[in-house]
Structure prediction request, 114 residues.
Amino acid sequence: MFSNRGNQAGFKEVTVQQAQEMLAKGEAVLIDVREPYEYVEVHAKDAQLIPLSTFPQHLAEIPQDKDVLLICRSGARSAQAAMFASQAGLKRLFNVQGGTLSWVQAKLPTEKGK
Prediction:
């Protein structure tokens, strides 16, 4: 089940395993809000890069017809992005708990480079 920790802020928390299941079913998109230098080192497979530093300028690029999974290094910046997106009126927002660190630790699919 999804955690309700972020519920008051307009988003929910999911584990990396739940996020992977949502992606595998085609129900979601994954947005990495880290900076480009972090993203090229390693990122979850098929993650789209929208750095938190430029996130407000890219809200229109976020699909509204799918669940939106937000990921960063450990979960803090992605929670900020989820809160901002929620305040801007976006729905179906999920923060990936533990971020890329947990994704890698769980041995889920990753990519390097752009």
Remarks:
- The longest helix spans residues 76-87.
- The first strand starts at residue 12 and ends at 14.
